[in-house]
Amino acid sequence: MSTNAVEMTPAHKEALAELLFQLADDDFLLSYRGSEWLGLAPHIEEDVASSSISQDTMGHAKMYYGLLEELGYGKIDDLAHGRSAKERKNSILVERENGAGYYMETPRYDWAYAVVRNYFYTLAKKVKIDSLKKTTYQPLAEVATKVSMELFYHHLHWRTWFTQLLSSSDEAKERMNKAIDGVMADFGDVFSYGNASQSFKEFALIEDATVLKQRWEAALKEVVKALHIESPIIQQPDRNGRLGEHTEELDRALSTLSEVYRLNPAVPW
Amino acid sequence: MDQSTLVAEKDIMEALELVQDPEISTVSVVDLGMIEDVEIHDSHVSITMLPTFLGCPALEIIKKNVVEQIESVAGVKAVEVSFKTSPPWTSDRITEKGQQGLKAFGIAPPPKHFTEDGSWHVDCPYCGSTYVTLDNIFGPTACRSILYCKSCKNPFEAMKPISNLM
């Protein structure tokens, strides 16, 4: 049964907003990290591809922030740029820096890390989006259907990089395995709903996190089997971004990405 | 009401045919299948459009161009343009005329079919050869891919297929 914003109880609306903030902040931060790679990707075709994926992903974040705006949580720009790290609901994984250095100076970013983070995240996003197509909140189900079409290409892209690098030289394999360890160390909260698991279930917003986690692990198992590496298992998080627990890397990201916004928050852009 | 002040849907559609894609001057927003609904109440026109890709930066420009074009139609006093995601835009919404327009610009129209692994095939929009390679699924804009024709040695672009099966 679908619902609309008008007939929602306050508890229902709060649960929906919590889910939207988690989805929006995840895509927003990861697309920002992707944008820092601009001009630095391994070759020109990849620069075109990954910047295009970041642009799509920013568009997805905009849709979620837009749904929040409709629910009365503030304007899209303010939601994206004006909230402090404490208020952010993104997972730790998406706020991590791309590697050592700063993109304006001497970045020594790690492409293996970018590939693994993007692939594992995109697969998780696909699992969530497939579930959200059946959510009880119709406007979100519609957005999920559209996002799914674009995500198809993102998933194909990152899976190709992932399998090719892990079928490549010893150095590539070593760096990829190190990146898998690094990404999995931060993966514990990707499928966490923070304190909202019960209310997500009550209002049938998205399936249980345990179910989605299993789907992710099963899908990845198929891919890694052929690559002769162990299947990654999602651990409990040490720190949970869904609860507003974040790293200094998020503070630094927010300070950079909101620099222009903070000059004059009243200017639309 | 006086007939002369009535806004005809035909006039609105003709005006929309004049609004081009900002980056492909040979196709209109109608040809691209972006127009979902047109409602006319007296002199007030509401147009509902579908975004091709959610992060497309041209959407605001397109919206502005639609408003300007419709405002110039005789009898129109107010124009409202909104985007919605349902039904989702799919590449099979591009009309026959749109497909010809894309070809004229050197862009292959989106393929009608693709296989389960996501691969698809288009012919070269310049020489019609089927001997082409996919260089990059991602292109200069979200909706385009980059290919290369091994027959006439031209790089070219194709509209990405976007479908409900994805």
From TrEMBL, chain A:
Top-level taxon of origin: Bacteria
InterPro entries tied to this protein: Aromatic_CoA_ox/epox, Ferritin-like, Ferritin-like_SF, PaaA_PaaC, PaaC
Pfam families in the cross-refs: PaaA_PaaC (PF05138)
Name of the protein in its database record: Phenylacetate-CoA oxygenase subunit PaaC
Organism: Cytobacillus stercorigallinarum
TrEMBL record, chain B:
SUPFAM superfamilies linked: Fe-S cluster assembly (FSCA) domain-like
Origin superkingdom: Bacteria
Residues of the MIP18 family-like domain: 9-81
InterPro entries listed in its UniProt record: Fe-S_Maturation_MIP18 (IPR052339), FSCA_dom_sf (IPR034904), MIP18-like (IPR002744), PaaD-like (IPR011883), Zn_ribbon_PaaD (IPR056572)
Pfam families: FeS_assembly_P, Zn_ribbon_PaaD
UniProt-recorded name of the protein: Phenylacetate-CoA oxygenase subunit PaaJ
PaaD zinc beta ribbon domain segment(s): 109-160
